[in-house]
Design goal:
- The protein is of the alpha/beta class.
- The protein is 38% helix and 16% strand.
- The chain is built from 10 helices and 11 strands.
- The chain has helices spanning 43-55, 71-80, 109-123, 142-154, 168-175, 195-203, 226-239, 243-254, 267-275, 283-290, and strands at 11-14, 18-21, 25-26, 60-62, 88-93, 95-99, 102-105, 128-133, 158-164, 180-184, 207-208.
- The chain is globular.
- Residues 216-227 have low confidence and may be disordered.
C-alpha cells in the first residue's frame, strides 16, 4: 500500500490569474517596536531579507497600511521595486493606527479610498494586486466598505479584492457585491476555529491566507496541546526537520488553497520556513496530525 499523500501543489492561482508559490512572506515584523509602529530599526537588513526571499522563490508578500503605519509598505518598495515579473504584493486597509496602542477599524469610503491611494504611492504601484479589507468596521455597514473596494477595482486601482477577520456570512455578503479572491483569517495547526471558513473557501476556489500560522509558538500554550508538540517533534525527528516546519507542511497538505505568510526577521528562519515546502507527509502522518486536539 502506498502510504504517501498525493502530490501537493506548490502553487495557487489567486483570482484566476495571479499564480503564486504557496509559501509567501508576511512582512508585518519589519516594523518598529513596540506595537509594530514606526520604521524597522535595521532598514538595510530588512531590505536584504526581502531580496533573499525573492531569490529563494517567494513571490507573494503580505503587508498592510497599518504596519508602521505605512513604513512596512515603504521598505518593501525600497527593497524590491521595480518588482520582478510574477511578484504579487498584497496589502490591507481599513485600520486607523495613530499610535501603537490606538488601533481602530475605519471602513468608511473616505478612509478606504485614502488608504488605497496611499498604498499605491508607498508601494510604487499603479495597481495593487490584492487589496484586503483588514477588519470590518462595526460603525460602518459592511456592504458599504465592500462597495467602495468594488469601485476602486473598477477604477483600476485594485486588481483583486480580499477580506480579513470575517465571518462566513460576511464572505457571502461580500461575494454578492464583488468577486472575492482571498480571505485572511487566523488558522494554524493548534487553532482551527475558522475551519468552516477554510472549507467554504476551498469549495469556492478562494485563496485562504492564514495569519498566525506559527504565531508566538502556539504549540506551547497549555495542557490541551501537551501531546501535539510531541507528535510534531516525533515526525520532525524522522524527517530531519523542526516542529515548526512540520506545522507549516501540515498546512500546505491540509488544503490546496492555503497560502502561507509566516513572518520573520532573520534570513536563517526564512530559509527554514521555505524548506518546509519540500516536506512530504504520509497519509498516516496527516491522519495523526489532523486528529490532534486543538484549542
Amino acid at each position: 500500500m502506498n502510504n504517501t499523500t498525493k502530490s501537493v501543489s506548490q502553487t495557487f492561482t489567486i483570482g484566476g490569474d495571479l499564480k503564486v508559490n504557496r509559501l509567501g512572506y508576511g512582512a508585518m515584523r519589519l516594523t518598529g517596536q513596540p506595537g509594530n509602529f514606526g520604521a524597522y530599526a535595521d532598514w538595510e537588513a530588512g531590505e536584504k531579507l526581502l531580496r533573499r526571499g525573492i531569490e529563494l522563490g517567494i513571490n507573494f508578500i503580505d503587508t498592510a497600511e497599518a504596519y508602521g503605519p505605512g513604513f512596512n509598505e515603504e521598505i518593501i518598495a525600497s527593497a524590491l521595486h521595480p518588482y520582478q515579473k510574477g511578484v504579487v504584493i498584497a496589502t490591507k486597509g481599513g485600520i486607523n493606527k495613530p499610535s501603537p496602542d490606538n488601533i481602530k477599524a475605519d471602513g468608511s469610503p473616505e478612509f478606504l479610498r485614502h488608504g488605497v491611494e496611499g498604498s499605491l504611492k508607498r508601494l510604487k504601484l499603479e495597481e495593487i494586486d490584492l487589496y484586503q479589507l483588514h477588519r470590518p468596521d462595526s460603525q460602518i455597514p459592511f456592504a458599504e466598505s465592500i462597495e467602495t473596494l468594488a469601485k476602486l477595482k473598477q477604477e483600476g486601482k485594485i486588481r483583486h479584492v480580499g477580506i480579513s477577520n470575517v465571518t462566513l456570512e460576511q464572505i457571502e455578503e461580500a461575494r454578492n457585491i464583488v468577486e472575492i479572491a482571498s480571505v485572511q483569517n487566523r488558522f494554524s495547526f493548534s487553532g482551527r476555529n475558522n475551519q468552516d471558513i477554510l472549507d467554504y473557501c476551498t469549495r469556492n476556489h478562494i485563496a485562504f491566507i492564514p495569519y498566525g500560522s506559527l504565531g508566538a509558538h502556539p504549540l506551547k500554550r497549555g495542557a490541551p496541546l501537551a501531546n501535539a508538540e510531541g507528535i510534531l517533534a516525533d515526525i520532525a525527528r524522522k524527517k530531519g526537520a523542526k516542529s515548526n516546519q512540520i506545522a507549516l507542511a501540515w498546512l500546505l497538505h491540509y488544503a490546496p488553497n492555503i497560502i502561507l505568510i509566516p513572518g520573520t526577521t532573520t534570513i536563517s528562519h526564512l530559509e527554514e520556513n521555505i524548506a518546509a515546502t519540500s516536506i512530504n507527509l504520509s497519509l498516516e502522518e496527516m491522519t495523526l496530525l489532523n486528529q490532534v486536539e486543538t484549542l
